[in-house]
Design goal:
The structure is a homodimer of 262-residue chains. Chain A is built from 12 helices and 8 strands. An 8-stranded mixed beta sheet of chain A has the order 3-4-2-5-1-6-7-8, sandwiched between helices. With 262 residues, the first copy, chain A, is of the alpha/beta class. Helix content of chain A is 42%, strand content 16%. At the A-B interface, helix 2, helix 8 and helix 10 of A face helix 2, helix 8 and helix 10 of B. Bound molecules: adenosine-5'-triphosphate (2 copies) and magnesium ion (2 copies). One adenosine-5'-triphosphate sits between chains A (12-18, 40, 44, 134, 190-191, 219, 221-222, 225-226, 229) and B (11-12, 157-158).
């Protein structure tokens, strides 16, 4: 069946959402059938793609979000929208998911809701990417309990490793109590400023602490990458021949091996 | 008495902590007696200043944090450490504050714990700066219920305004139910890349939506600003004659007027 990949880091603004969209399209260009699931109530992935969703009237999107699937009000298959022109699909999110997270914490098996929704999905995909919110709450736990692989984007900044210890504990707990099959094979240094010594030192420190996971490919900080969402497209739709697109392609290739995607 | 200023934005990594330290020292250079309170369990402010705290053995810091004061185990005056060489003081945080946030949510008047601690503070300061965590939970609510003024750092990125609506609601709720005296007079565009059109458009959009609050002074994205915490100092300790120090000085002057600090 499909490989499910959770993009997770409880720190805000480290590049999770941007990486999910760019890797999704990068993998689609390699021939994979890709579904992205927006698990963040802030719904940045959904908002930046809003106008590009096939049959995605604002009303239809609002009533067919990941929340509907987690609450078992709708099958996941009814919440899938094609992203026109990029060759990938999306299950959208909405701010209401924030209230849902509180209410769903009373459910029996509350961490398994996403896994149940995915296990009953009758639509075929090769890869399902989970865009996590910046927290280690119920939504992120659902992602970890449902995922086969974990990818951690880490911003190359001072104190980047601080949050890693906490994240590692949570991943280990999920492996022990909910999902032994969960694998963690990738840490991706993002928004790297290759000119600054600080950036390089942080990446080296990451490699020392996570020698088996830190990717060879680094994702530098680039204006085009930051601009692409405001045009509703991935880096491939915004600047297909620029260096940033090439870096994402390299990362996608490297992750095919690391995450055993074929 | 002192003016208490909450630096708040539920989005992660927008520059709250960096601005708190740099404005603290900027105001100290103008003659204000400044105390910073680290309200974030991730304790980045505390960690970056760790080695510069007078009589700040690791053990003494751990047992005299903001948590001790919020739990009423110690008076706030016992949790104050001088930041050597920068002319400001700090009440440190610690990861244990994360657990405390959960337990303290059962307390009567749970949003007023910080205000109580500050009201009984017998040490003299002119300004007390509150460094909030990236959430709108109990710790941030305590900051809003205790503060006289709110400063919102906003990163000049696509979807920057998304979180503002939610933040505005919370500020309004606090004003209505807990603290009518709370004022919101400042929104500070941070990490602005003046060369990119996206950055300029986001700042213009901010000015349209918050004409009375957005500061004239913008805080550009600068390598020196990102590096300073790794040396345990403010921008004034790291690069006092560079452009970034000047930008912080301009901001401090502008905020003296906006926040009626004299
Ligand atoms: N490689 C990059 N170069 C330049 N800007 C980037 C890069 N990656 C992401 N950004 C920008 O940084 C900001 C944060 O990125 P993004 O929203 O992907 O992070 P996130 O981890 O998903 O944030 P959140 O925790 O809020 O979900 C966005 O404005 C995005 O455009
Ligand atoms: N003006 C700036 N120029 C360049 N880098 C900056 C600037 N301001 C902050 N940074 C860097 O951006 C990162 C995030 O900044 P900071 O920790 O102050 O944000 P924050 O809002 O406090 O984050 P959190 O939500 O995690 O508390 C840090 O690595 C910091 O050094
Ligand atoms: Mg995101
Ligand atoms: Mg901070």
């Amino acid at each position: 069946r499909e490989v499910r990949i959770a993009f997770i880091n409880q720190k805000g603004g480290v590049g999770k959402t941007t990486l999910v969209l760019n890797c999704a399209v990068g993998w689609a260009k390699l021939g994979f059938r890709v579904l992205m699931i927006d698990l963040d109530p802030q719904a940045h992935l959904t908002l930046s793609l809003g106008d590009s969703l096939a049959e995605g009237s604002l009303e239809r999107i609002e009533h067919n979000t990941i929340e509907s699937a987690l609450r078992r009000e709708k099958p996941l298959s009814e919440c899938i929208f094609e992203v026109v022109g990029e060759g990938v699909s999306l299950v959208p999110s909405h701010i209401d998911l924030s209230g849902a997270e509180g209410e769903l914490s009373q459910e029996l098996g509350r961490e398994m809701l996403l896994r149940d929704a995915l296990d009953t999905l009758d639509v075929e995909f090769d890869l399902i990417l989970l865009d996590c919110p910046p927290s280690l709450g119920l939504l992120s736990l659902n992602a970890l309990a449902a995922a086969d692989e974990v990818v951690v984007p880490v911003q190359a900044e001072y104190l980047a490793l601080q949050g890693m210890a906490q994240l590692m504990k949570i991943i280990t707990l999920v492996q022990e109590r909910l999902h032994p099959g969960l694998q963690w094979n990738a840490v991706v240094p993002t928004m790297v400023d290759p000119r600054t010594r600080l950036s390089r030192e942080v990446v080296e420190e990451l490699r020392r602490h996570f020698p088996d996971q830190v990717t060879r490919t680094l994702i530098p900080s680039r204006v085009k990458v930051a601009e692409a969402p405001s045009f509703g497209v991935s880096i491939f739709g915004h600047d297909p021949h620029g260096p940033a697109a090439g870096e994402i392609e390299d990362l996608c290739q490297e992750l095919v091996e690391r995450l055993s995607l074929t």
